[in-house]
Every structure is written in C-alpha cells, then in structure tokens.
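Running this now, will post back.
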Amino acid sequence: MHADIRHERWELATPFVIARETYLHADVVVVTLTHAGAIGRGECTPTAFYGESVDGVMADIRQLVARLAAGEAWERIHDGAAAGAARNAVDCAVWDLRAKQANRRVWELAGIPAPHPLRTAQTISVADAATQTGKARAIVAADGAHALIKLKLDATDIVARVDAVRAAAPAATLIVDANESWDAALLYVVMPALHAARVALVEQPLPVGEDTALARIDHLVPICADESAHVGADLDALRGRYDFVNVKLDKTGGLTEALRMVARARELDFGLMVGCMEGTSLGMAPAMLIAGFARFADLDGPLLIGRDREPGLHYEHGIVAPPVAELWG
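Update: finished.
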C-alpha cells in the first residue's frame, strides 16, 4: 500500500466570523491510499480550538498509515487511535479504498440507506444586523423562501439580529449558533424572544463545562450540543441538557465513529444534526451518508470557500446531491 499525505490551503470567499475567531482560509489535509490499482481518499480539517495543527495532524496520519501499510487491521488501529482530524482522514480514505476495491458504494458496505439530495444550511457569519439581514435576503433569493439559514451570533444584540434576519426571511428555517459565547443568564433572558422568532434550534449556547445549567432552563427552543459532543461515549452525560447533537466527522474521527454516534444518539432519543468544518466536497461527501438520519444538515463548507475540487458535490438552490463515486465512496 502506498500513502500520499498532502496539505492544501483554500482561501475563503469572504472572512468567516464566529464568536471566538475569524477564518480567512481552510487548511485541509488529504490522504490518498493506493493498493492494487484502487485509490481511496479522505480529507480532514485540523482545528486549532481542539489543539490540532496541520503539522501535528500530518504526523499522526503518518503513524496511522504506517501501521496500516505494515498489515495491521484498520479496525484495530481505529479503535486505539484518538478521535479527531487525523483519524477522520484515514478512516474516510479506508472506506473509499474498500468501496473501490469491491466496486460497490460505501453505504452498501456499511449497510445503511443510500444518501439522497437534501437541504443544507447556509451559514451567515457574525456581523451587525444590517449585514446579516442582507445575507439572509441573498440566501432566500438563491434558495427560495423555505431556505435553511444558520445564523452565527456572539453575545451582543442577539434579539435585534435574530428579529432582523427573521423579518428578511419569514418562511426560512432558522438555526442560531453561539459557539459557547453566552452564559446561562443570557440564554434565560433571550430564550422567549428566540421562541417568538420561530428559531428552530440553538446550537451550543454555553461553554463546555458550564452546560449543566441547561438542565435548569426551559427549552422553549431545542438546544443542540456541538463542542460538548465529539463521540458516542459523550452522549450519556448530555441527557437532560441537550435535545440535539451535532455530528461532525472531524470531531468523531471519521465515518466509523460517526455511524456509532448516530446509533447511540438515536438510542438516547437525541435529535440529530450533521455539520462540518471548513473544507471541500471531499470532506463533506462522507457526512452525506449520516445526513439521511439527521433533522438538520449543515454541509456548506465548499460554499464558504466559493470554489471546489473537481468533481465536487452538486449544490443548487440550497440542495446538495450525494457524491459521485469519482469524488468519494
């Protein structure tokens, strides 16, 4: 087996701003595995917030693929490796390689339903109300009145910005994402207004470690765990605090654990969202397989970049189609 590990930098179409930082580009790592004429690929996005760097992730990937090339079973390697970006890239490359070798699609190998076209959220960065309202109008113009909009917020002018976006997109499904920037007192104050604005979901309002307060707050709007939920083993402790969990392959460490996390979330009656880091269609494609289980999909990474690898996923009017085999799976 031969492995190629490559760092790519994709400049974003515009700066992407969340409560804690601003992104100007997406740094992704692509793993290509070649064996007996078959080629499998996987992509990950190292996340500094989770203690990851491009160099560190590439070093971890080299160790994983060296063991794989030496003949060790991926299942054994996988279960002993840390969740995160490095395992994600290799796991998705292994799934892709095995599908190419078997001349089948990954969902057939996994025994799950085939993915289907679905609506993805379009994300609006943190900005003032006028800027966010303008972006909401543009999304509705492109995707239709019933667009799915994800509104990034910090701890300032929450109600004013939500109300302005709702006025600009009265029929859209609206998710708000605070990225841990609120406290319990603030959430308690704004929750009735979010409910009145028909917000469908509030994503990770409180910091990890401070979210026990969610059990004492009336969930007028369902609350989704993101930073608090990485793998299936995290979910039992989140019961009573969250209504939904956001499954991201760069957190779970690949499709294998994502499928396990989905199964455990369903056992515990959590609603499901599937999300992404900034990345290309190669990073989004495996997430399409779990998006069929989710109430909300947020797979707009390539749209934030404004360009994509070829072939990529097909996005049109807010709908993303499943990957072709040439891309992944």
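The domain at 118-320 is CATH 3.20.20.120 (TIM Barrel). More later if anyone needs it.
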